[in-house]
């Protein structure tokens, strides 16, 4: 029977005169994301998704192996930096967490995954899309979103067949995520018969793109794809406007946030930007996702940026595996987690394949109109 979201947790153990009550089991869930730096708004969004799940688990009732559970969230900041990410991972291992949700970026998730693997601690990333993450053979690595092969390839095809792009330029930020999704996008463009007229790169801390954009302007691109995050995409869009580059702007999930119009300082034209989120819900499932977003806004006084619902689901899937295994011991619940099939979350149905990837992962295509993100379609 599938573990439901609303299941309880008991009060702390009490030792009273002559009566000994069984002590609650404490289950520590680690979460890592960039809660400082340029994409702190995305990291906080992810962390809040984990906190929402943990608070629900503690507010409702659950037992594992017949014992009451107290859930604790150990949140760490990796600042989207690989070195800080591995340090955060080691800190969680030393704290003897029962499982980890994270990291946000592929560039931090991949190196951290070896540390969790060596310690035998299950890790579910809600947002790392680089294919390498689940191709290192680590039995502890899982993700609840589609990878860059699907995401980048779909966007490349869309740029050619739907946006009718003839001259397409590609820029990436040289991170594991940005470079990976840009490469898959370029492959998708070529497979669809498109023409990549320029291939440039920057870094994830850059703010001045004048030289890159000026060089690309002479090639007359009608579509520019950026592999990176919204904190860089926003200034890039502003400078495209200043240089008079009238091109569609595309990107993966990293730019696909509600903050992008603000970061672009109001320079985005309607239907200029197209992006894809590595996940998505269509049909009746949308009701559950919208209910989550409403509850999230009420709890945190903030709109969902991108991946909070996936973090929430990842946390609940991990808890579900513990309940089914009758144990929070990583060695005991890991085999159950790996066999997760048909878990109905707020982001849709979650089942893992033999690599730890989600089966039949969805993508949601978006554009922006009136300064707000607008869904175009969910594709699989």
Automatic annotation (TrEMBL):
Task: Give the classification, highest ranks.
Answer: Bacteria, Pseudomonadati, Pseudomonadota, Betaproteobacteria, Burkholderiales
Keyword annotations for this protein, in alphabetical order, are: Amino-acid transport, Signal, Transport
Where does the Leucine-binding protein domain start and stop, copy by copy? Answer: 27-371
| UniProt keyword annotation of Disulfide bond present | no
Describe the family membership recorded for this protein in Swiss-Prot or TrEMBL: Belongs to the leucine-binding protein family.
Q: Where is the signal peptide?
A: 1-22
Identify the domain of life. Bacteria
Q: What is this protein called?
A: Putative high-affinity branched-chain amino acid ABC transporter substrate binding protein LivK
Keyword Acetylation present in the record's keywords: the answer is no
CDD domains xrefs: PBP1_ABC_LIVBP-like
Q: Which GO terms describe its biological process?
A: amino acid transport
């Amino acid at each position: 029977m599938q573990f439901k979201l609303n299941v309880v947790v008991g009060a702390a153990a009490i030792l009273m005169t002559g009566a000994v009550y069984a002590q609650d089991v404490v289950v520590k869930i680690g979460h890592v994301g960039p809660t400082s730096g340029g994409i702190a708004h995305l990291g906080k969004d992810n962390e809040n998704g984990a906190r929402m799940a943990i608070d629900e688990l503690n507010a409702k009732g659950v037992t594992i192996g017949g014992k009451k559970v107290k859930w604790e969230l150990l949140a760490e900041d990796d600042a989207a930096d690989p070195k800080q990410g591995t340090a955060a991972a080691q800190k969680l291992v030393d704290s003897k967490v029962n499982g980890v949700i994270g990291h946000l970026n592929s560039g931090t998730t991949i190196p951290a995954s070896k540390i969790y693997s060596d310690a035998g601690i299950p890790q579910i990333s809600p947002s790392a899309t680089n294919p390498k993450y689940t191709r290192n053979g680590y039995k502890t690595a899982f993700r609840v979103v589609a990878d860059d092969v699907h995401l980048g390839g779909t966007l490349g095809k869309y740029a050619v067949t739907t946006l009718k792009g003839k001259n397409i330029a590609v820029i990436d930020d040289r991170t594991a995520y940005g470079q990976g999704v840009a490469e898959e996008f370029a492959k998708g463009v070529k497979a669809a018969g498109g023409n990549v007229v320029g291939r440039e790169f920057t870094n994830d801390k850059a703010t001045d793109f004048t030289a890159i954009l000026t060089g690309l302007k002479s090639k007359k691109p009608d579509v520019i794809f950026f592999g990176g995050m919204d904190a860089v995409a926003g200034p890039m869009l502003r400078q495209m406007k200043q240089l008079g580059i009238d091109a569609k702007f595309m990107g993966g999930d990293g730019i696909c946030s509600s903050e992008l119009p603000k970061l672009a300082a109001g320079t985005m034209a309607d239907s200029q930007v197209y992006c894809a989120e590595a996940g998505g819900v269509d049909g009746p499932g949308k009701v559950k996702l919208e209910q989550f977003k409403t509850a999230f806004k009420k709890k945190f006084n903030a709109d969902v940026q991108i991946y909070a619902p996936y973090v929430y689901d990842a946390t609940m899937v991990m808890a579900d595996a513990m309940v089914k295994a009758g144990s929070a011991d990583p060695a005991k619940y890991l085999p159950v987690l790996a066999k997760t099939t048909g878990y109905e979350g707020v982001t849709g149905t979650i089942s893992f394949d033999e690599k730890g990837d989600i089966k039949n992962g969805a993508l949601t295509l978006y554009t922006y109109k009136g300064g707000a993100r607008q869904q175009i379609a969910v594709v699989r």
